[in-house]
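Support reply, case 0932

Customer input (verbatim):
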Amino acid sequence: MSSKNFRNSLKEVFHQKKDKAKLLLNKFKRQRNLSTSNTFSAKQLFSKKEKEKGSQDKKTIENSTLLYRSQKNLEEISSYGTNKKLKLDKDKDKEKEIPILLKDYFYREEINSRTQESMEDFTLIKHPFLSLDKHNLSLFCVFDGHGGDFVAKYLKENFASILHNSIKLNYTLNFHSILNSTFESVDKNLEKFDITQNCGSTATIVVMDNNIIYCANVGDSKCFYIDKKNAVQMSEDHNCKNEKEVELLKSKGAIIFRQRVYGSLSLTRSFGDMDFKQYGVTAIPYITKIYADKNNVKYIVIASDGIWDAVNDKDLFKISKKLKGGTSEEFCNNLVNYAVEKGSNDNISCIVIRFG
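Our regenerated output:
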């Protein structure tokens, strides 16, 4: 063997041993990480997960959901049934805590006795709701029942506790996962009651986590946030007037006529209504979130369709402008009175939250 070939052979042996040593070292590091992974404090786990959150959020969410910025300052993070998969352009600075003060809130439930004999709307407010590490949560909900008040009343009495349990099982506070699992658990619980075959409810809920505000809904009770320039809808209308929703139901075999599922149910997503679940009616929520500060969110309004049958987004913004920073009580009463005067003939439930 020539000296040149001998030197090459030595180099090859050296590199093989070096590569083997690297593999052993990496294996040792992995084992060490696994053995110490359970020693993190709760605070360390939160900070570690927050660092990983950016990369996790960019992954496509399972079950035909959508992650993208749908409007300025508004992120749609769950839209059942869509095939779009767009990349989320996330602003890391917005994840930092921004001082936001909830000045006051007010709710009003109006039977609208001129046209209604019973009340099937309910509100639920938990402020404060829950505190975990740096997370201070508040909960605001509107439930609009149909076919009786059983489902809406069940939601008022049980939704908060089921959400609480979902949060305890998800220490990373991934609210996309938490809200989806909560809605799924609630609807599964409702299957136990025979009355829910033809009785149901909408649900529009807002969870505040410091400066991050989440909205999740099924049905046509709406949520808007109001800034300096306009009123922006955070919820989605799940009824047979929504062409995208109608196409989804038709793809699952449903027949739509008189703008209703089988001529009976006007909603395409709801709690309860078990007889219609086989035709694609679902309780999978539409979820959005905003990063709020005192400059870009003045009010949040959550209300049943007794408001929205008579009030549009432009009306809502005009009412807010006339108040010139008025209290939530003033806004709520003005809004409900305006809807009644404009001819609303349904039950009305309305929550107004004021920031500053």
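We compared this against your earlier run and they match. Two observations from our side: The two ends are 84 Å apart (CA to CA). The first helix runs from residue 3 to 36. Please reopen the case if you see a mismatch on your end.
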